Amino acid sequence: MLEAINLSKEYNNFSALNNLNIKVKAGDIYCLLGANGAGKSTTINLFLGFIEATSGSVSINGLDVSKKNMETKKYLSYIPENLMLYPTLSGLENLEYFVGLANKKYTKAEFINFLTEAGLQTNAHLKRVSTYSKGMRQKVGIAIALAKHAKVLLLDEPTSGLDPRASNEFSNLLLTLQKKGVATLMATHDIFRAKQIATHIGIMKEGHLVESFKSEDITLKALEDLYLETIDS
Ligand SMILES: Nc1ncnc2c1ncn2[C@@H]1O[C@H](COP(=O)(O)OP(=O)(O)OP(=O)(O)O)[C@@H](O)[C@H]1O
User: Fold this and answer.
1) Ligand 1: which residue has its CA nearest to atom 3?
2) Distance from the CA of 168 to the center of ligand 1, in angstroms?
3) Alpha carbon nearest to ligand 1 atom 24, residue
4) CA 13 to chain centre
5) Which of 7, 9, 10, 11 to mutate to test the pocket of ligand 1 (most atoms within 8 A of CB)?
6) Which pLDDT score is estimated for 42?
7) Closest Cα to atom 4, ligand 1: which residue?
8) Atom of ligand 1 nearest to the CA of 42
């Protein structure tokens, strides 16, 4: 579903990402941990085709992002820390607009069902997004992923700034998408959430993926210790 092979990114001889190899399959939730500047966002941005790789390749659903950038967009949804939605439109209108860009057609009732499935309260569907909390905006992002039938979800610190309840709700929504076979790659600083929902965890440092393992193979305490050991070494 999502694959990076020998992927590197340099900025004027500075190595932001060095020879990354990673595979995220359908139903996997892969969490990338690492200190500020470790290369997590660079990785996500390369999958999104926002930036060009210096070397190596990145593919989504078997399609090389550098060659089929537009086509890969059909399969993916992206939720950053601050999801860009139109503030003067309602959640429902934003959903209709962004899903329309993906050429998917639904009735109003179906769009409303996606918002409901994403956990957005009914009384908020028709309100302007400018009145939404961050957690509510993230739910619109999940509704877009549901309606697009996204196969791949790219997340860059999506729970940063969410209160514990909203963060927990968001995690549960990711598990719902996982059950539908979505492959998720998430950059996060939240070790607890990573351990809670990830199938796989990677720890990055200075552009290198220095640790990669299955979440079930490590306890939260051991993960915390390994994380600190890794970034301090
Ligand atoms: N456009 C750019 N030009 C120069 N250097 C860049 C550019 N974008 C990123 N970098 C550098 O690449 C490195 C990796 O940055 P990246 O944003 O991927 O880190 P990150 O792990 O996502 O960090 P954070 O947790 O702070 O979001 C950093 O040293 C950063 O300063």
Assistant:
1) 11
2) 27
3) 36
4) 28
5) 11
6) 97
7) 11
8) 18
- With a Cβ cut-off of 6 Å, ligand 1 is lined by 11, 16, 34, 36-42, 187
Contact 22, 30 (CB under 8 A): yes
Phi, psi of 110 (to 5 degrees): -70, -40
Closest CA to 188 of 81, 97, 106: 81
Q: CB neighbours of 113 closer than 8 A, spacing ≥ 6?
A: none
Which ipTM score applies to this complex?
A: 0.96
The full set of domain ranges for the chain reads 1-75+151-233, 83-150
Output the CA 120–ligand 1 centroid distance in Å.
33
Range list of H helices, the chain: 40-48, 69-73, 91-101, 108-117, 134-148, 164-179, 191-197, 220-232
For 1-75+151-233, CATH gives 3.40.50.300
Q: Check residue 103 and give its pLDDT.
A: 85
- Cα gap 83→75, rounded to integer Å: 18
pTM: 0.94
